[in-house]
Please model this.
Amino acid sequence: MIEIQSIKYTPQSQFHMLRHFETVDDAILQLLHNNGYTQNQIQQELSLPGSKFFSHFANNIKELLEKILLHPYQKSTGLNGNHIIESTLPIEEYPIGIGTKAVVSLAEISSAQKAQIFIEKNRNHALAHILLDTLPITNQCTLILKPIHEGYAFITAFSGESAMPIPDFKMPKSQFDACKAFWDGHVFLKKII
Model:
């Protein structure tokens, strides 16, 4: 069992997580301002496309950890040694879901949707995307933690199933190849604005 207090996170972690929250609470907003982030940077990060936790579920890391780790989860180790925590939260507690998912397997989409795929840069890598009116709702979530001497460093969390990191040429070749193979078989979902 992972203890919440063993997970360390920083203002940079809170800033990164804006891309996976619908909104930010006032205390985190103040923390980010106190650490040099501008309102424009905060808004840009909040508006990035991707899986988003609903604001009624969580809008800061502490609240997120308290809810995820309260429920049963599966733990595995990724190619880079990070711990991958996956959980499906009870529909009885969250009947309207905990968030949206923005990554799906190509096998999950229709032929008509496959015809609408376009390639777009996402975190500096050309990836498949589809535009949708609404993103699928999910009760699944993924938490990524890096083991450190005094517990864990919080890396990221998102609503939806576990996904491989975006391929990065700085990765070892075997890790890059595994990440590329994953993304070659998956597509990003973007909400039409």
